[in-house]
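Recall that a protein's primary structure is simply its ordered list of amino acids. Everything else, from secondary elements to tertiary packing, is in principle encoded there. The following example makes that idea concrete.
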Amino acid sequence: QVQLVESGGGLVQPGGSLRLSCAASGFTLDSYSIGWFRQVPGKEREGVLCISKSARVTMPRDSVKGRFTISRDNAKNTVYLQMNSLRPEDTAVYYCAAGQIADGCTLLRGPYHYWGQGTQVTVSS
């Protein structure tokens, strides 16, 4: 019954924006650090942006800095990824993940216990 479900993916033109949602069921996200990851065929899943339990700390990978924003709404048990100024290289399946992390958050996959099934984001003209 423990689930994370991503939604909001789709096709967008370069320079466009998209907002992804990650909804939890069977557990509450407020005691977890959350990370957004992405993966393309033939490539390792990579961390995109994460947020700490308190939401006071966020960590982006360099390629999305200034373009992507992560936020959380504990009342809705949901985490969001706002993506602006999208580029073709942002095309991937995007996953959200939850984990117990002592200090802030991490873009490493290891500490994350729960994973969603992903939502496709395609950036193309």
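The chain has a mean pLDDT of 96. The two ends are 39 Å apart (CA to CA).
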